[in-house]
Structures are given as structure tokens and as C-alpha cells.
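Researcher: I'm preparing a figure for a lab meeting and need a structural model of a single chain. I don't have an experimental structure, so a prediction will have to do for now. The sequence is pasted below. Please return the structure as C-alpha cells so I can convert it later.
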Amino acid sequence: MTSSSSSKKHGPDQPEISGSTTKSLRTKMIKSEDGEKRIYKKLKDVEISVPIVYGNISFWLGKKASEYQSHKWTVYVRGAKNEDLGVVVKRAVFQLHSSFNNPTRVLESPPFEVSEAGWGEFEIAITLYFHSDVCDKPLNLYHHLKLYPEDESGPMSTKKPVVVESYDEVVFPEPSEGFLARVQNHPAVNLPRLPAGFTLPPPVPVEDASRKKRGDTKDNPLSQWFMNFSEADELFQLAAARQQVQAHIARLRRQIGVIDGQHQQLKSISDQ
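Model: Understood. Here is the structure written out cell by cell.
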């Protein structure tokens, strides 16, 4: 089934295609009240961050292209370094253009991706649902499907795809001890420095190795085209430093509050 695009289509009579850009974000997820009731033993002044990348890869069909089938494409959400996001993401929902059969695609396990064929560019809504010990609030992302290269005057290639990706760092404040213990050894998760004196429970046993391998995007046949976000390591370090500063500020505020309380008590006694 092909897509009818309300945005842009390749052709001499069509408007110029917008440029493909990458962006760096920091999305902070806050638990809903229902989540508050189910998740216990939260860690104050602690944040867990999960870097993700979402975007699409499209291949021109060349001589096999037709008016309504000019490209094959895949839209996806992956770990910033191609890690398996299934440890955090329970389900991903991709909302395609209404002209596709079954436009709402639900992925219950990684890799979180949808492949189709068509001719038109359009916006795809992506909703990520997290495991119950992570966050009850879903994360909504939006990606504009890109099929054609920036330079429309140049020849298109069947071997070199068009790749458009965006980077986002999803932050979970005050995680539960269970969540922290479950992901403490997972490469997709940026684990913060823990409060002094806090000891994590034993790590959760690793799931079946063959099942884990199927969800690892490192084995994805498209991985050779994935963009290398070299900024990811620097962002990890900045996020860790930011978390440490925030924790230090919170401790100082509590200490100031205690000192102020003691000062007020002493003042009341001296006034008597």
C-alpha cells in the first residue's frame, strides 16, 4: 500500500524539500499518580537517563520504482549506541499515514521498527510505553519521514540511502530501587552515582541469551547506515555531572533548612 502525502513529493512541480537535521534533547519523564501508588522505595536526588535515537532510512527502488512505489523505508527507535531498549521500553506504537493498511503499528518487543514502501513523505507519531517499574507516563515523539536527498538536482542512488535521525536523552527522576537494580548492568542505561551509603539489591538475572540477541539492534541489517552520535559520550558525562550537582544542591538546601530551624529555636529561647 502506498502513502498519499500531504507534505512533499519528489517532482519538478513540487515545493522544495526541507533539510534533514539532527537535534539533541533532554526529555524528563515524571511518574503519574497511579505510578506513585505502585512503585515503592524511590531514590531522592537520583536520575536515570536513557539515550535514544529515532528516525528513518529510505532506499530508492531505481528501475523497480513506480508512481506509487518509489521507495522502501524503515522508521525506528533505537539505543544511541544500538543497544536493546527492551529493558526500559515495553511497547512502541507507530502511527503511519491513514492510506496504509493497518496504519497503527504496535511493537511489543525490540527491535522497535516499521518497514514499508511508498512515495510520499509525512509525519509519523511514535509513542513509547515503559515497563511498570520505569514510568506510567508514555513518551510521544514525532518524526517527519524523509525519502529524498537534500540535493534534488543530483542523481538518486539505489545503494546509498537517505538517513535522518534525532537524538534524545530520556530522563527518569527518582527511580525505584527495583528499576535501578534491574538495569544496573545494562549498556542502554546511564547509571548515576548513588547516594552515599546506598547499596543496590543483587542484579536481576540476565534473560535468555538467544532472546536478548534478537532484540539487540547491533545485529540489525540496517546498522551499517545508522548515524554515529559521537556526542553521546560527552552527553553521558554532562548528565552525570548535572545529576551530582543537583544532588549536592538538594543536600545543602536540607542542611540550610535544619540550621534555620535551629536558629529559630535559639531565638525563641533567647526572647523568653
